[in-house]
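A common beginner's mistake is to predict each chain separately and then try to dock the pieces by hand. The better habit, illustrated here, is to supply every component at once so that their relative placement is modeled jointly.
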Amino acid sequence: MKPAPFSYMRVKSLEEAFDLLEEYGEDARILSGGQSLMPTLNMRLSAPKILIDINQISGLSDIEIKNDKVRVGSLVRHNHLSSSDIVTKHLPLVSKAVPHIAHHAIRNRGTIGGSIAFADPAAELPAVAKAAGFTFIIKNRNEEREVEAEDFFLGLFETSLKETEILIAIEAPKLQQNEKTAFIELSRRQGDYAIIGVAAQSVVENSVFKDIRLAYFGAGDKPVMAKQAIDLLEGQSYSEEVVSEAQKALEADLNPMDDLNGPPEMKMHLARVITARALADLIS
Amino acid sequence: MEKNVDINVTVNGQLISRRVTARTNLVDFIRYELELTGSHVGCEHGVCGACTIRVNGNIVRGCLMLAAQVDGANVETIEGVSDGGEISDLQDEFLKRNALQCGFCTPGFLLTAQELLSENPNPSRDQIREFISGNYCRCTGYQAIVDAIETVSVKRKPK
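With all components supplied together, the output reads:
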């Protein structure tokens, strides 16, 4: 199908974008990489009056080290993430996740900011953001605010971004010594949206988990931190018993939806399987 | 509230100026406005890869970009890339290996394979499969396509 008619504005600065956002409110959509927005337009699942193309705003496409954090501009494309030495060295969870995001041609266009702001519950980066403790830098015309990933995702495609705001950057803490990461995703075809997946990060010392975070995607209406499983694993030494207890705790944490991939029971089974794999990966 | 957008874009080396409606997809612009029909329209939501086009040197989904977005860009379609001889070895090998039957997906596969080989001249079969995972072929079963790309990667190695 073809999109319903809309207007299109290419902006060169954030100020121009704020002008349009304030004028059009909920009738406007920000066009970043467009790799999720365009399908919804083509299938007429959404019909905004105007697209605000922010691709030519300068200063939003850099990856840089800022003290103990890495700052990633919201227009950084997925394939830029995978070719960046800074990301490879300091944000290994991102490096592990990116190859699972759709396909090469889509990764040439899709952006980290777009993926976060779109907040698809089956997408990789929102879960990575939670597991790796990202902070989002959000701007409107007058002020800048910071939101933790934990507080950003509110529900199905719903975030704490307001109509007049733009996500301009992501700040991610550099991986610390003794910190390990694991990323497991199950999908029907390489690059498809996940049936279910997990992004995991933890300090591991002598096989003991410390400050462990397990964020699941494809497991609810937003990326889900498995709080019960995390509480159970925190401070524990890796063993078959501990893994099995964590798997049981997932029942209280996850509420996967029935979808084309299968029923919730199947997804819960798969969640237990990938949890065991992720914990083994963290230890290895 | 439809809007027209003026664009100046280089397509296969030729500078083109046109006025397009804002909602025109890049691949539709190329097919219907420029009558370059080698780029195909399949799923129209980024799944099948039949509309693969190069923009500023990298492959993209032609159905997931607007024509309005390529103002100032360098666009290459299968017509330009094949006429330039850049992928003639890939085309020959696809033919030899029966890596196509109906041919609908082939332009997308060729551009995708060329991007793989330019980034990774020596890919494993698994890496080839991963890279072409964004392109659907309903005729061949993929085996012959992987064979063809693998063979070209070997043939292109400097002796």
